[in-house]
Every structure is written in C-alpha cells, then in structure tokens.
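Retro notes - structure team

What went well: the batch runner handled both jobs without manual restarts.
What didn't: labels got mixed up in the shared folder, which is why I'm recording both outputs here explicitly, each with its sequence directly above its tokens.

Job 1
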Amino acid sequence: MQTAFPYHPSQDSRGDLLTAPVLERNARRSRGVSGRITWAHVLWIEPELERRYGGDRHDPGVNRERALRLCPLPPGAPVPRPLAPLVPAASALPARAADAVGADPEDEAFELIRRTHSGYLCELAVGIVRSGAPYHPDQGSRTPFTAFLPEDGAPVGRAAALLASTARELLSQWYDAHHQAGESAKAYPLPPPAWAHHVFSLSVRYEFCRRVRDEPGHAPARRHEAGELLDEAAGALPPPAALRDRLPGGVQGSVVNELLSLAYPLWDRVRFCLDSPFDGLGSL
C-alpha cells in the first residue's frame, strides 16, 4: 500500500530525502532518538569509561569526580556550585550531580535546556560546567567530563553552545571507549575525529534550536533567535551524500557512525532506531 511516508532501510539512500513527512517524523520521534542514544551510551560506553577513568558508573557524582580529578581547578578559581539536574525529575535517568564553576546555576540557558528536554547529553557526559569559551578539538586540548557555557550572548545561543560543547565531550568519550574496548571493536574503522565532532555538535545544536523554535512555551524573540541559529547549523552540516561518503564502512559501519546517523537532522534519522545491526550488542 502506498503511503505519504514510505519506510526505507538505513542503507537505502532514498531515505535520505528531507521531505515534509520526514521533518514531521523527526520532530515527533525526537525523544525516542534521544532515548536510543542514552541506551547506547549506558550499555556500551560507560563500562569502558569506568575501566579507563575509574569511578563507579552507578555513582551519581562519578562524572563530577572524574572532571575534578583529571583537570583540577586552578588556585583562585570560583568555588563549584551545585547545578540542578538538567533532565526533568520525571525522567527514567538517575539524576547525576554536576557543578557550575564561574557560571550562575540559575542562568536562563540552563532552564532552556531543561524545558526542551535537551539535557540528557549533559547528564551522560558532564560533571562540571565551566564559564568560558567552548572546547574545540582542532585546538589540540580537551577538558574531560567538562562542558563550557559562554559568558556573553543571548540565552538561546549560549545554551546551544553549551550543548555543542557537551556533544563534543560525549563523542570524545565514544572514541575513548572504542580504543579501550577489545580487538573486536577496534576492527571497525572510525571517521576522522575532528570532522565527526563538527558534525555531531552541529546536529545537537540544530535539534535544540528546532525545539525552541517549534515547541510551545517559548517567547517570540527566543523562537526567532533559535530559527536563525538552526539555519546556520543546517547550512554548516554536510549534505547526506557527503556524510555517507565520510563514514567508513557505511552509516552503520561502527557504533560511532550510528551515533552520527541518529543525530544528523537532514535525513530520516528515526530509521536508525528501527534498523540497527547493533540491537543485540551487549558491550563493545
């Protein structure tokens, strides 16, 4: 039977067309995609991070402890202040402890992240939020388990920058886990890290801005700012054909490739929740 929105498997490039029904489905099922990424991180990545960085992954303060142990605060740094969970209390995720350093825990940027249900990446990957310029992997430095909130700018742009910084850190942890895992995982080639960080952070920025622009409860000025930032992110992302060409082994050639495919907003990303060769994978 013909439908307005035919289903195409992940390997079928006909599913790469960003039609109006695909846009609608991506928006309607975006929480499900977030859940899929959360499930994968908890199941595959966190055990490897525990082996690499220590700490108990079941401890709510594990990422905060790792962040402060791996990159201690310099003398004279602002005292860390507890940050309220960025995932709503009704979430199935256990609330993880995080601190703000130099940033105001009551900053509107944090509230925007909560209201759009966009904080799941922060809960998974970050124990410290520092005030300052975001991390860029091409500069050759990284502050593990830490994200950055810009000091200046409008709340939507600053929240988007914090989430992009968090996305870069989470993806770094996926690369860490891949290298920490056994030989079976290492057999899968990964895309170039700097390029992958660029794509993933822009994809996360796009989805947050879409939620602010399209979902109820946001002021017109916030919607307008989000729309402009969304268009910037869309213009900076590679087109679907170029994305496929840069993923070694195809869109599902590795778990990192699948993460990028799930997050990438310019095609039908929901299909990667339904058509995955990794469904039975219990660990890396």
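Job 2
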Amino acid sequence: MYLAELRFKIIADTQFAHAEQAIRQYIEALIFNGQVLGREFPTAWQQEEFVSRIVVPSEDALQPKWHSDKGRSAEQLLGAAGLSYPRYHVLGQDILSQTSCSSLPKECVLFTTFADTCSPIRCAETLQPVPLFWLTPMQNDHEALIRWQLQFQALDEIQLQEQRVLHKVAENSLQGWHSTLNRVGRQLSKHLSKINNLPIYYALYSGSAHDCNSEPNKTCPNCGKPWRISPPQAGLFDFRCTSCFIMSNIAWECQSNSGE
C-alpha cells in the first residue's frame, strides 16, 4: 500500500463548508470503490488549496479508468464547489501496511479482521490483499462489501476486548453459520465470484468450540462432508470445502489449549 496526497486548488469563490462537502463526497466515492483504503482522510487548508492524506492499494489506484460512475460524478462536482480536479502525488510505500497483489490471483478468499485497513478480498494462497477496483462490482461500486467489512471489524474488535462486554453476542455473529453477518458475507462472495468468473471462498471465523477434542474433525457446516486439510492453507485455514467454497480454522481457543 502507498501513502499519497490529493491537492484541491481553489479556482473560484467558495465556502469552506461547500469545499469540505465536495472533497468528502469525492474521497468517499473512491473509498467505496476500493481505490482509497480506510475511513480517515485528514485534510488541511494550505494557502490556496486543500490537501488530503490518503492510503491507496497501488500506485495507479486513482487512474480514471478505475473510477466508478459515482467517482466520476463526484469529480465533476468539485468544480461546482470552486475546486480544481485533484492533483495526485504518491509519497511512498506505507511501511506499516500489507503489500497488495501485483496481479489477480487464481483463487481468492473473503477474509478480514478488526485491525485491517486493506481490501477484504485476499489471495487464497498468500492472503495478500486484492485491490477491489480490479473486480467487477455487483452494482455501481463495492459499497455493500465495504460496509459488510466495517460491520465484521466492529464485531471482531468487540469480541477481542479484555473486558468482554457483549463478547458472546459479537462472537456468535462472527462464527455462527446462520448469523446475518455470515449469511450476507457468503452472498457477497458468491455474487462477486459469479460476476468475475473467479473462485472466491468465504472465511468462516472460529473462535471457540463446544468440544476441543472433536474440533479438528468437524465437518463443513453447509454440506456436512469432511474438509480438514494439512498443512493449513496460507498458514491459517485448517478446513477447506471446494464444493461450498468455505474455509475456516480450528477454533482459536482449542489451538491455544492444544498447541496446534
């Protein structure tokens, strides 16, 4: 990933509120298309222009060919707010973030955690993030997928808190096969897979188990068939069902207890 700047020069009379709204609308359109990562984009006023700091998955992420219709419309609205088209400058590679794939993998997996700011679509072999704008979206952009990611991350953070406030509620949503969160996630991965003619697995989180002794031998929650693999794929997934396109892990509490 790369740290970059967007500079919006003032070219006509404007008000801060109008300029702020136009910049926010433009960058949010980029976020929901996977061209800008995260939800924060600090913006400063510097003499005759506004400067926003952003993180992008690749150096070419803001090329016009990747823009969604919403992005193109938002770009045009900058002029109405008295701002120029943004000047884009890459400052350098973000040394604290993951490196995105250099090409589209043969297989992907929908996987995220509370600490991630990257794409939730990963290479199934390396877990490197896949820039979302490489993929044909289900609608105009990838907003539905990114909003699902935000919900997953919020619940993941809750269930990891030491104080354990709403711990079980969050964990049940994360690992329950029939939870709304997982049902929506499976639908998103299935639809993206079909549209892009690309195998996309769904990563089913497993934090706790009723019986750690039988946990390594559990079956696919969808078809009921054996799905244990060895060694774990990408060093993480102990289970993989090639019929249902699901991956999962031995419950974390069982791994910590058994030393697996």
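One thing worth noting from job 2: The longest strand covers residues 2-9.
We'll revisit the folder naming next retro.
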